[in-house]
Design goal:
By secondary structure, this protein is an alpha+beta fold. It has a single domain, classed as Pnp Oxidase, Chain A, CATH 2.30.110.10. It is about 20% helix and about 50% strand. The chain has 3 helices and 8 strands; from the N terminus they run αββββαββαββ. The chain has helices at about 1-10, 50-55, 80-90; strands spanning about 15-20, 25-30, 35, 40-45, 60-65, 70-80, 105-120, 125-130. Strands 1, 2, 3, 4, 5, 6, 7 and 8 form an 8-stranded antiparallel sheet that branches. The termini are close together.
């Protein structure tokens, strides 16, 4: 899990795919945080992505860095833990202009039942589960 977190931080931008009805939705994300043994992302509850994940928590994440791409199939689970929200905002202080751990909008979600696959053109795929 730590390796996945470090890869996503180094990539800086990853793409999160959700579904809305029968339509896939993909958007760029940049937050990734390891907190108390769980890997978290952050968004706002008012956003469509949050509504899509509450209707169907299955998601995929994809990133590319240094000739390697990472795909993660997982479920994203909302966590109302204030400490998890605070830790995310401490690690991404620019978000404090838009979010507060105590507001009704800030949402952190952790990856559950995750299968992460590292791939490249020069090595066989390698899978990590958590």
């Amino acid at each position: 899990m730590k390796e996945v977190c470090e890869f996503l931080k180094k990539a800086e931008t990853y793409y999160l795919a959700t579904v809305e009805g029968d339509q896939p939705r993909v958007r760029p994300f940049g937050t990734i945080n390891l907190f108390e043994g769980k890997l978290y992302i952050q968004t706002g509850k008012s956003k469509d992505v949050s509504k899509q994940l509450q209707a169907n928590p299955k998601a995929e994440i994809c990133a590319f860095c240094d000739g390697v791409w990472l795909r993660i199939a997982c479920e994203l689970v909302r966590d109302e833990n204030l400490a998890a929200k605070r830790d995310m905002l401490e690690n991404y202080p620019a978000l404090k202009a838009m979010y507060s751990a105590e507001d009704d909008n800030t949402e952190v979600l952790y990856l559950r039942n995750a299968t992460a696959t590292f791939s490249s053109f020069t090595a066989p795929p390698r899978t990590v589960t958590f």
